[in-house]
Amino acid sequence: MTRASDFEDSVAAVTFDLDDESVAVIIGSGAGGGTLANELAQKGIDVVLLEAGPRIEMDDFVNDEVEMAEKLIWSDKRKASGNRASVKAYPDAPAWVCKTVGGSTVHWTGTCPRIRDTEFKARSTYGEIPGTNLMDWPITLSDIEPYYVRAEDKLGVTGTHGIPYFPGNNNFKVFAHGAKRVGYEQVTTGHYAINPVPRDGRNACDQIGYCVQGCKSGAKWSTLYTEIPRAEDTGRCEVRPNSMVLEIRHNAAGRADSVLYADHSGNHHLQKARIVCVAGNSIETPRLLLNSASNQFPDGLANSSGEVGKNFMTHVEAGVFATFDKPVNWYRGRQAAGAVWDEAPFNPQRGFVGGYYMLVFHMGLYGLAAALDPKGWGASYSSILENYEFMAGSSMVGEDMPTPLNYVSLETDTLDHHGKPIPHIHQDDHANDHTMRNHYLKQISAVYDAAGANSLTEWRAYPTGHNLGTCRMSENPRDGVVNSFGQSHDIPNLFISDGSQFTTGAAANPTLTIIALVIRQAEYIADKMRSNEI
Ligand SMILES: Cc1cc2nc3c(=O)[nH]c(=O)nc-3n(C[C@H](O)[C@H](O)[C@H](O)COP(=O)(O)OP(=O)(O)OC[C@H]3O[C@@H](n4cnc5c(N)ncnc54)[C@H](O)[C@@H]3O)c2cc1C
Ligand code: SF4
Questions:
Q1: Is the dihedral of CA 238, 33, 35, 1 positive or negative?
Q2: How far, CA to CA in Å, does 460 sit from each of 67, 114, 441, 471, 494?
Q3: What is the pLDDT of residue 371?
Q4: Whose CA is nearest to atom 17 of ligand 1?
């Protein structure tokens, strides 16, 4: 069995020259970038992995919500507008992502469903929905299925590859009891990238429940202590933390040839590259392409379609906290602890297209207080917190609509400390999002009522962790930014390797699909490099 300290023996065994034109440069070390680095390095490709955040190792994790939020969260200035509750409540920080080696996989809670066949064919399945840019993906479930199998093995997903499901904790038992009473049938502790038993050099889950703060036992998969050290162990991957990429540059032939980045002290460096893969999460990825505009590409790189930054999606979100007469002790066990799947398939009789998962989750006391109202005060507010141990909790993850109104653009009037325009995120609810959210709130209230809750508190506004779209895949270069392998339609040696490439959002939590796409992309890149096409 491997303890935390064993993972830290890995050291960067190789360094590459800034002038080395043979390397693959990957930007961002989270789910997409960290995994791609390992996949390419294992295939014998030299990789420079540039990460804006510091390298915080497992021993630096502490079970303290405030301290870890300060250590991990991307807090560079952003601006948001729109009528979505999350952007109204958090106009400076509408999205929740990490700035650290390992990216948001240090933070995530490991839920791993697959996208459904009908969701890959969203436009064909749902028909024309006014006000949306719905499109079918240029791949189907059968194209990606073998890569889902490999991704589930890599992550050690429960309920796959002979890995047992978790037993339910109290938070799940209360939820499951109510769900079955209202007639739900697919009530499960679900698929998680968290070890119920030791596997692949990682420990079994201790059920202590600080998953978002960084998993001290390594039971939860993160690129920080799986993919990245394994890539380094090949001797073909150099990780450069505290390296914020400011621009991707290209040669006269219009091929990406280098990236400009700032180190911890703000000094600039130009790293040459044979290919460039961007995995900065769906706000920073389009921002970087737009900030890389040149005379040849005045609207930004890979943007001949005008689609860079468009169709920003985050999943329809909402949550409910239920209070009971007897203690639930919801904080004991994993933060994400089960789900109802019955509402996930498309069922037009509900009055909306797409579907959603009803999830079980808990929050720490500090997080709960901030979520309810960061400036909360008074008797009704404190009475909720006093009932902390009597609470149970659920949130939803539902498919939101890609629309021309939801985008990431540059706020050219406001520059960051590197002198680059900050991102402006605009997000309005589409009517379909609104109807779906209300459907969930009605159903989850019925679930907790059936379980005997004595009060319910709705949670409609939180910064989202699932950022998608903004560089979407399309069959036709006119309609999107990349092809089905994440390769730019305009610049063949420029790849998008994160959730930005999602054509639509689907209902599934996105990371398993990001990993499956990246494993597939790595094979494609290796083939194209071998044949000297890139
Ligand atoms: C609290 C929370 C819980 C979550 N739970 C789940 C879950 O249960 N299931 C699920 O599927 N998903 C979950 N997610 C979402 C999941 O974390 C993301 O889908 C996934 O990490 C996205 O991968 P990525 O590679 O696109 O980005 P990230 O993992 O966010 O990595 C991007 C990295 O790029 C770096 N970067 C950005 N710009 C630059 C730049 N210009 N130069 C250099 N580096 C840069 C960032 O610092 C960051 O480290 C959760 C997210 C949060 C916040
Ligand atoms: S509950 Fe399990 S997955 Fe979460 S931090 Fe603890 S050991 Fe890791």
A1: positive
A2: 25, 25, 10, 27, 38
A3: 79
A4: 104
List C-alpha distances in Å: 203 to 140, 206, 245, 254, 410: 35, 9, 34, 47, 43
**Ligand that comes closest to the CA of residue 247:** 1
pLDDT of residue 45: 98
Assess whether pLDDT exceeds 60 at residue 1.
no
User: 7: which 2 tokens?
Assistant: 């993972």
- pLDDT by residue (tens digit) across 287-307? 999 999 999 999 999 999 999
Q: Please report, for the chain, the start and end positions of each structural domain, with discontinuous segments joined by +.
A: 4-82+94-157+211-311+467-530
**Contact 37 CB / ligand 1 (< 6 Å):** no
Amino acid 530: pLDDT = 96
- φ, ψ for residue 155 (rounded to 5)? -85, -15
On the question of pLDDT at 9 being above 60, the answer is no
Q: Which of 12-26, 65-79, 94-108, 145-159 has the highest mean pLDDT?
A: 145-159
Identify which has the larger pLDDT, 485 or 3: 485
What SS3 string covers 317-354? CCEEEEECCCCCCCCCCCCEEEEECCCCCCCHHHCCCC
Give the pLDDT of residue 383: 78
E-state strands within 43-157: 47-50, 79-81
Report the pLDDT averaged over residues 171-190: 97
State in Å: Cα 211 to ligand 2 middle.
5
Assigned CATH for 4-82+94-157+211-311+467-530: 3.50.50.60
* Per-residue pLDDT tens over the stretch 301-358: 999 999 999 999 999 999 999 999 999 999 999 999 999 999 999 999 999 999 999 9
Ligand 2 centre to CA of 81 (Å) is: 35
Q: What angle do CA 369, 194, 174 make, to 5 degrees?
A: 55
DSSP for residue 407: E
Q: What distance in Å separates the CA atoms of residue 103 and residue 423, rounded to the nearest whole number?
A: 18
Q: Which contiguous run of DSSP H or E holds residue 170?
A: helix 170-181
User: In a mutational test of the pocket of ligand 1, which residue from 55, 281, 359 has the highest number of ligand atoms less than 8 Å from its CB?
Assistant: 281
* Predicted local distance difference test score (pLDDT) of residue 28: 98
Ligand 2: centre distance to CA 157 (Å): 14
211 lines ligand 2 (CB under 6 A): yes
Instruction: Give the ligand 2 atom nearest the CA of 206.
Output: 7
Question: Rounded to the nearest whole angstrom, what is the distance from the C-alpha of residue 333 to the centroid of ligand 2?
Answer: 7
CA proximity to 245, closest of 298, 207, 292:
292
CA nearest ligand 2 atom 3, residue = 220
Residue carrying the six token digits 């990682």: 202
Compute the distance from residue 282 Cα to the ligand 1 centre, in Å. Answer: 9
Q: For the segment 461-483, what is each residue's pLDDT rounded down to a tens digit?
A: 888 899 999 999 999 999 999 99
The answer to whether residue 205 scores a pLDDT higher than 80 is yes
Decide whether any atom of ligand 1 lies within 6 Å of the 364 Cβ. Answer: no
Nearest CA to ligand 1 atom 1: 108
